[in-house]
Amino acid sequence: MGCNLAIAGVTGAVGQEFLSILEERDFPFDSVKMLASSRSAGKKIEFKGKEYTVEELGKNSFEGIDIALFSAGGARSKEFAPAAVEAGAVVVDNSSAFRMEANVPLVIPEINPQAIEQNQGIIANPNCSTIIGIVPVWPLHKANPVKRMVVSTYQAASGAGASAMLELETQTREILDGKEPTCKAFPYQIAFNAFSHNSALGPNGYNAEEMKMVNETRKIFDCPEIAITCTCIRISVLRAHCESINLEFTDPITPDEVRGLLETAPGVSVLDDREHNRFPMPIDASGKNDILVGRIRQDESIAENRGVNIWVAGDQLRKGAALNAVQIAEKLL
């Protein structure tokens, strides 16, 4: 049985990824509506051998729609998602607009699929860094509760959208040609550089991206007491995020036990080749659905073998965004 589908923000980087994942997974739909801002209205999009015309996203866009996949930014989600719900659709929203609202499930299907049925019309897709970081942490936490997580992220340009990816390419050419780099999507040069994540800083000195990881992990794990601290950094990589994750467990745990748990975990692939010093890289994760995990080793600074370090890489546009939303939509069906 198919459904009537709408995609809001279809011309953006995540919107385009929605289309390729829906096609790859042969998602069952009877009709699909392509929605974007007025700037993109009228554009033609080829999908599954058929041409579609992009329509302007508005409050009247959702008549007869069953599921609406949103990746149009927080402001547009707040403006148009309630209209979609009122028209009878279930919204899977990729923005931060609703994630921390008490009555909105925040879902990673490998972790808390049961939360989907508690939806009141809106289901939130977590932040990309949260998804990529905690899909591999969850099976470990289930086996031996994690007391504390220390996360450092190395985030790709794709997290800031198609314009940021283009900026990385453009700046690289400009610098190699001896020109000044053009900075529009980012406040600083992204090519050949790294800088603190370009989200707003709070009074505690942490930026919004870092606090998203803290608050979203606690909500998804249903574990408000877990201690988490993050440092989020942008690097000059096109589309896959990496994260260094230090975990302190309740009970002793060995790297071999961690490896064994991760080798059977859904949505995870282990790439941990010590002999050849070969571990996950952004180019390994780009275009892949699984989160890649390596550098699995004991944290020798934590007593009683209760600490482990892991290194992860995940495609920010796929599992970090579009794939997770499509998996939620599949469960709705």
Describe the structure.
The chain has 333 residues and is α/β, with parallel strands linked by helices. The chain has two domains: 3-125 and 321-332, Rossmann fold (3-Layer(aba) Sandwich); 130-315, Dihydrodipicolinate Reductase, domain 2 (2-Layer Sandwich). Helix content is 29%, strand content 26%. The protein contains eight helices and 15 strands. The strands form three sheets. Strands 10-11-9-12-15-14-13 form a seven-stranded mixed β-sheet. Helix 1 (13-24) crosses helix 8 (318-332) and helix 3 packs across helix 8 (318-332). The protein starts with a strand and ends with a helix. The mean pLDDT is 97.
Elements, N to C (H/E): EHEEEEEHEEHEHEHEEHEHEEH
Average residue-wise pLDDT: 97
| Tally of helical runs | 8
Count of DSSP strands: 15
- The backbone outline, from C-alpha atoms, is globular
CATH-defined topology of the largest domain = Dihydrodipicolinate Reductase, domain 2
User: End-to-end span in angstroms?
Assistant: 8 Å
Q: Any guess at the CATH architecture of the largest domain?
A: 2-Layer Sandwich
CATH top-level class of the largest domain: Alpha Beta
Q: How are the strands of the largest sheet arranged?
A: 10-11-9-12-15-14-13
What is the number of independent domains? 2
